[in-house]
From TrEMBL:
Signal peptide: none annotated. Residues 5-194 form the Bacterial bifunctional deaminase-reductase C-terminal domain. GO terms for molecular function: 5-amino-6-(5-phosphoribosylamino)uracil reductase activity. GO terms for biological process: riboflavin biosynthetic process. This is Bacterial bifunctional deaminase-reductase C-terminal domain-containing protein. Pfam families: RibD_C (PF01872). The lineage of its organism: Bacteria, Bacillati, Actinomycetota, Actinomycetes, Micrococcales. It comes from the Bacteria. It comes from Georgenia subflava.
């Protein structure tokens, strides 16, 4: 069975998925509202790792997450969702889409380094998707997501929609010209008004 490439991303109601471009674009917490949408969404992401063994990142998202996730695995009692998710993410194979063909590996704390994916990204991901192993998840990385949507390489989209509209930030599908038909597979409502929408490819 072919591996699936899965997008998991947080979004505002009007499709913004990044922080303020004048600050830290990778930090979307500036528009999350007080509550537990992020925590409940993290539980859903953790369940995805029952079938995911590889994380795919754009370079900017890698630079951000590689500073954060290796420090989040401290043992606590009871072990919270962040610690459990950190263990899964830190232990997963990590692939980074980067144009820097001079790097051989990218550090990830004390865990195995991430592997840079250079060259023809679409061709490499086609081979990965056809190979052995678990599914592949993409966090954030809107520039990478748009490229993969254009190349028809995303099999599932899991979008956590927060109940907020913001003025600034990067919209997920801005500039995507290729039409993609999807099927709603599930909609999970969270206690603070957020919703997780899971889409798969529409069957022709």
């Amino acid at each position: 069975m072919a591996r699936r490439i899965i997008l998991f991303i947080h979004s505002t109601l009007n499709g913004v998925v990044t922080g303020d471009p004048d600050g830290d674009k990778t930090d979307f917490s500036g528009w999350t509202r007080p509550g537990n949408v992020v925590g409940e969404a993290s539980e859903s992401l953790l369940r995805l790792f029952d079938r995911v063994d590889t994380v795919l990142l754009g370079r900017a998202t890698y630079d951000d997450l590689s500073r954060k996730w290796p420090t989040m695995q401290a043992a606590t009692e009871p072990v919270d969702v962040v610690s459990r998710l950190a263990a899964k993410i830190n232990g997963a194979t990590k692939l980074v889409a980067t144009r820097d063909d001079q790097v051989a590996q990218l550090p990830w704390g004390e865990c195995a380094p991430a592997e840079p994916l250079g060259g023809d990204l679409a061709e490499r991901l086609q081979r990965i998707r056809a190979g052995e192993g678990g599914d592949v998840v993409i966090f954030g990385s809107p520039t990478l997501v748009r490229s993969l949507m254009e190349a028809d390489l995303i099999d599932e989209l899991h979008i956590v929609v927060h109940p907020v509209v913001v003025e600034v930030g990067e919209r997920l599908f801005s500039g995507v010209e290729t039409r993609t038909d999807l099927t709603l597979e599930s909609a999970t409502t969270f206690s603070e008004g957020g919703v997780l929408l899971a889409y798969g490819r529409a069957v022709a």
